[in-house]
Amino acid sequence: MMNAPTQAAITVGGGVGINIGNGGGGDDGGVWFGGGININNNPTPSGPSVSKLNNAYTALQAWKSAITDDPLGVIKTWNGSDVCSYKGVFCSVDSSNEPFVVAIDLNHGNLQGTLVKELSFLTDITIFHLNSNRFSGTVPDTFNDLSSLQELDLSGNYFSGSFPMVTLYIPNLVYLDLRFNNFSGTIPEDLFYKRLDAIFLNNNQFEGELPSNIGNSPASVINLANNKFIGNIPASFGFMRSKLKEILFLNNQLTGCIPQSVGLFSEMQVFDVSHNSLMGHLPDTMSCMSDIEVLNLAHNELSGVLPDIVCSLRSLMNFTVAYNFFSGFGQECSKSFYRDVGFDFSLNCLPGRDMQRPQPQCNVIPGSGLSCLRIPSPQPLVCGALFENLNPNVTPSSSPSP
User: Fold this and answer.
1) Cβ of 379: how many Cβ atoms within 10 Å?
2) How is residue 44 annotated by DSSP?
3) Which segments constitute the Leucine-rich repeat-containing N-terminal plant-type domain (predicted)?
4) How far is CA 55 from CA 65, 66, 82, 124, 172, in A?
C-alpha cells in the first residue's frame, strides 16, 4: 500500500538523484551522483574521504565476490577504485566537497548471491534497496554498524531464517521491508517499540501469536499479510493512539474477536483482516474510524447485524463482508448501494438477499458462544470519549497523551 519514497526516483544505472530519501543522512548536500555514470570532476580527494571511499571499495569488492549470477551485467561495472561510477551505487559530497557512498539501489537487478559482513563499512549509506533479486542467506550481524541507514528494502528475494534481529539495532532505520522472502519463526516485541514509519513483513513464513504491544508502534503502515500468525488480535491494540493509517492482517490464522480498541485508530485508512477465522459481532467503536477508506472483513466467521453506524462512515469507499455469517443490516447499509461504495455482502445469512449461504449453513453460527469484550460506552457512542472508556488505566478526568 505504501511505496518506498525512492523507488521511482532511483533505478539501476540511473544518473543523478536530488534530495532523495527521508532526510538524506547529514550533510550530503542533497545532490547525488553515480549509479553508473561518473560525473565527479573533482580533484582526487585526500584525507578522511579517501578512507571512506577505500572502505567502500573494500566492501563492494567483497560483495561482488559473493554474487554468483549477474544476467543483466550490473556488477560488470564494479571495476576500479572509482566506486561512484559503479552501477547502482550513488555518492554524495560532504561539507568539504568530498565524495562518499550514500545509497545502493539494485532493485530489479536479478542478482544471485549473499550479503557479506564487509557491507558494514558503508557507514554513511542512508538507502539500501535490493528489491526483486535472488539474494539468499541471512542479514549479517554487522549491519548494526550502518549508523546512517534509514531505508532497508530486502523484499522479493530468498532470504531465510528467523527474523533478522540486527535490523532492530540499526539506529536510524525508519523503513523496513522484508516482504516476499522465506523468513520464519515469531516476530519480536521490540519491533513495535522501534521508531519505524513502515513495517512490511508480508508474504513470509512468520508464525506464532502477534506481540501484545503491536499498538505501540509509531508506524503509519504495517503489513503482516500472508503469513501463519495465530491467536487473537491483542485487546490492547490501539491503546497508544498511534498514527497508524494502514494495517493488513489478511490471510493468516487469526481467531477471536475484533477488539473494541480498533476504534481508537481514528486516522486509519485501510483495515484488512480478511481470510482469517475471526468471530463475533463487529464492535460499535468502528464508527469512530472516520478516515477509513478500505474495510475488508471477508472470509471470516463474523456474525450479527451489520451496524448502520459502520456503513455510514463518510470516507468509506470499499466495504467487504463476503463469506461471513451476518444475519442482517439496516437502512444505512442499504444506502451503500446508491453511494460510491463497493459493498460486497455475498455468501452471508441475510434473509431475502441474493447470493447467500444455503440455509443449513446458517442454522449454527460459528462462535455463537464467544464472549467478546464489550466495555460499556456512552450511548450514542461519543468517539472523543472513547479512549477513557476503553483504557482501564485512564480515569475519566485525565487527558490522553497527544
Assistant:
1) 7
2) P
3) 54-92
4) 16, 17, 12, 11, 21
Domain span holding position 157: 52-388
Planar angle of CA 111, 114, 120, nearest 5 degrees: 115
Q: What is the dihedral of CA 288, 209, 211, 161, to 10 degrees?
A: -130
Amino acid at 265: F
Tens-digit pLDDT profile for residues 105-129? 999 999 999 999 999 999 999 999 9
- The closest alpha carbon to 295, from 322, 319, 323, belongs to 319
299: cell is 472470509
* Residue 337 pLDDT exceeds 80: no
Is-contact 170 191, C-beta < 8 A?
no
42 in a structural domain: no
pLDDT digits (tens, 9 = 90+) for 25-38: 334 345 667 776 44
Coil, helix or strand at residue 70: coil
CA dist 16 → 5, 120, 304, 367 (Å): 16, 24, 57, 58
Report the distance separating Cα 113 and Cα 226, nearest Å: 25
CA angle 99, 84, 172 (to 5 degrees): 65
Residue 87, classed as helix, strand or coil, is coil
How many structural domains is the chain composed of? Answer: 1
CB atoms within 10 A of CB 370: 16
- CATH number where 95 lies: 3.80.10.10
Task: Note the pTM of the prediction, 2 decimals.
Answer: 0.84
Query: Based on the number of CB atoms within 10 Å of its own CB, is 158 exposed (0-12), middle (13-18) or buried (19 or more)?
Result: middle
Average pLDDT over every residue of 30-57: 62
Asked whether residue 3 is assigned to any structural domain, the reply reads no
Cite the beta strand spans of 42-117 per DSSP E: 67-69, 89-93, 99-105, 112-114
Question: Which residue blocks in 282-385 are alpha helix, DSSP H?
Answer: 308-311, 331-335, 359-362
* Residue 24 counted as domain residue: no
**By C-alpha distance, which of 118, 171, 120, 160 is closest to 138?**
160
- Distance CA(176)–CA(217), nearest Å, equals 13
Q: Which of 247, 368, 322 is closest to 1 using CA atoms?
A: 247
Residue 360 has what DSSP assignment? H
Which amino acid is located at 41 in the chain?
Answer: N
